[in-house]
Amino acid sequence: MSKILSSETWERLRSSGARTVALQFPEGLKRRVPETAAALKEAGYAVIISGDPCYGACDLATDALSLADILIHFGHAPVDDRPGVIYEFVQFDFDPEVAEKATSLLNKDQPVGLITTVQHAHLTDKVAAVLEARGFTIVVGDGNARTPCRGQVLGCSYASARSAGTSQFLYVGTGVFHAIGVGLATGARVVALDPYTGFVQEADASRLIRRRFVQIEKARKAETVGIILSTKTGQRREDLARHLVSLSPVADIICMQEVSPDSLLNLGYDCYVNTACPRLAYDDQVRFPVPVLSPPEYEIVRGVRDWDDYIIDEI
Ligand code: SF4
């Protein structure tokens, strides 16, 4: 049996009565496709594999699902309630004692909100116990429909951090994007701990803000504006796109599945506003030929939001 398929998933497959199973893996796990398909075929299932890029549960392989009875989506927790999909979280372990490395940057006199990604959410209580044993008060916020695990954050949702309501957070995970996002979403101080290397740092949003300010100023000169509306299952913000297009007669809504530098270049607009995955504007601006603003940033350009009310985009 494939180790990537949990006993719960095998049980759900059996009870679903499915005969053909579609598989969807994120990029970092795609190498596990052949062994997973082999295990399912050995168990008597026919298999359809989605080969398209996948970065989140917001991008379900509906084409592959249309050829199958059920879809197994690997690596992410659900972002919405969609029938016919089994979510197989993939857990990445680390030694919870690594949390000790973060204690020098945390203030023991105030509660610490604990946040992480879905891959590490199963270790949240153990990390909390390590810190509590050292005298810290730990708060883990509730999940919601988009982030169902306690303390879980996504690049498009920091609701669990808001629910914790603390003035400092410890983010356990790689990179600093989520930590910066929590800082911008809550106004709190955020310490980021890489659970593999033990490297610990304070998340600093100032560089991101400076870069975004430059793009906002460039966008003020745009004579044509494309409002990007994603057709992906969990990124489609139609009402928001309609609101944004109503702010200026020079704006048009552009429906897209994949947002690529080439497609934006060929469309030829002076500026785009991204209502798809928020990370596109923040992480990938250097790849794009013209400013790609978040919805709140575009509201600043159009004068319906003050710069002092700058907020990070969330779905
Ligand atoms: S919208 Fe972006 S950040 Fe949110 S789940 Fe999808 S890929 Fe991840």
UniProtKB/TrEMBL annotation:
For the biological process aspect of GO, one term held by this record is:
protein histidyl modification to diphthamide
- EC class of this enzyme? transferase
Q: Which UniProt keywords apply?
A: 4Fe-4S, Iron, Iron-sulfur, Metal-binding, S-adenosyl-L-methionine, Transferase
Q: Which reaction does it catalyse?
A: L-histidyl-[translation elongation factor 2] + S-adenosyl-L-methionine = 2-[(3S)-amino-3-carboxypropyl]-L-histidyl-[translation elongation factor 2] + S-methyl-5'-thioadenosine + H(+)
Kinase keyword on record: no
Query: What pathway is it annotated to?
Result: Protein modification; peptidyl-diphthamide biosynthesis
Name the Gene Ontology molecular function terms of this record: 2-(3-amino-3-carboxypropyl)histidine synthase activity; 4 iron, 4 sulfur cluster binding; metal ion binding
Q: What does this protein do?
A: Catalyzes the first step of diphthamide biosynthesis, i.e. the transfer of the 3-amino-3-carboxypropyl group from S-adenosyl-L-methionine (SAM) to the C2 position of the imidazole ring of the target histidine residue in translation elongation factor 2 (EF-2).
Q: Which family does it belong to?
A: Belongs to the DPH1/DPH2 family.
Q: What is this protein called?
A: 2-(3-amino-3-carboxypropyl)histidine synthase
Q: Which organism is it from?
A: Methanogenium marinum
